[in-house]
Amino acid sequence: MNPRHFISLLDLTGEEFRYLISRAIELKNNRDPDYQPLKGQVLAMIFEKSSTRTRISFEAGMTHFGGSALFLSPRDTQLGRGEPLQDSAKVISRMVDGIMLRTNKHETVTTFAQHSHVPVINGLTDQQHPCQLLADMQTYFEHRGDIKGKTVAWIGDGNNMCHSYIHAASVLDFKLHIACPSGYQPVKAIVESAGDRIRFFDTALEAAKNSDLCVTDVWASMGQEEELKQREHAFKDYQVNTAVMKAANDRALFMHCLPAHRGEEVSANVIDGPQSVIFDEAENRLHVQKALLEFLMGKK
Ligand code: CP
Ligand code: NVA
């Protein structure tokens, strides 16, 4: 039997996404150390890129649930010496109960999933970051209730986070206003998958107008460090600052997946201000990924 994977938010129905959020809130509010649904299970975590939140939240989550997590870097395994992905996926999945990957290319995760006997979780690729959206949406639901019919403004790069916001708009049915500099738009096929829920605006102020949540991310993602100078120039008018938050609804929240660069994509007074929920967002990675691990790997 093919295991259930979590590669993209489109792998979930709206009902399942909402279930994971409510389960995450339940796990967060009633931590029971004796509840160990993944006792003895092992999650392999393959990181081609750096991480603080993703690594710690998955590792802590597995420990809370009575299991354990293995940190694997391509540098120290045969993955970095060219062992075929197919062979690696088959071998690793014979020894563990789940595999989480953070990779440069999205296709690395999809190839792993095709050949794995156990659930594969996308912990960020160049194209998507679905686990972060689980946490962002849990955070929105906790502060403001269901996001259905609300308006989210995405300001900045049309990157992996932007793509996962587009997917979330489809699955949870909210409107997404996007303002990206020209040349940095999200992938067309992903935009089209969400239909008329997505609208593009020329400026950050226009996108933020009447929005319930403003979100941004770094101007240069991991792997794009060499483009930083060029990107700083292209994105200089796409900062989320007080003027942008004023254009949004009075009760609008501010989110950022972190790590952030104050003074670049977001001003310090916004990210450290009263509308910002960035640390709830970061903490919720732990709770909602526990819900996800239980959903994919529990009740064997
Ligand atoms: N937001 C996020 O994924 O953080 P890390 O890169 O620290 O895992
Ligand atoms: N867009 C960022 C997200 C980091 C969590 C990156 O890919 O580096």
UniProtKB/TrEMBL annotation:
The gene is argF. Pathway: Amino-acid biosynthesis; L-arginine biosynthesis; L-arginine from L-ornithine and carbamoyl phosphate: step 1/3. GO terms for cellular component: cytoplasm. L-ornithine binds at residues 160, 217, 221-222. This is Ornithine carbamoyltransferase. The lineage of its organism: Bacteria, Pseudomonadati, Pseudomonadota, Gammaproteobacteria, Methylococcales. One of its GO terms (biological process) is L-arginine biosynthetic process via ornithine. It comes from Candidatus Methylobacter favarea. Pfam families: OTCace, OTCace_N. Carbamoyl phosphate binds at residues 51-54, 78, 102, 129-132, 257-258, 285. The keyword Isomerase does not apply. GO terms for molecular function: amino acid binding; ornithine carbamoyltransferase activity. Keywords: Cytoplasm, Transferase. PROSITE patterns: CARBAMOYLTRANSFERASE (PS00097). Signal peptide: none annotated. It comes from the Bacteria. It catalyses: carbamoyl phosphate + L-ornithine = L-citrulline + phosphate + H(+). Residues 148-295 form the Aspartate/ornithine carbamoyltransferase Asp/Orn-binding domain.
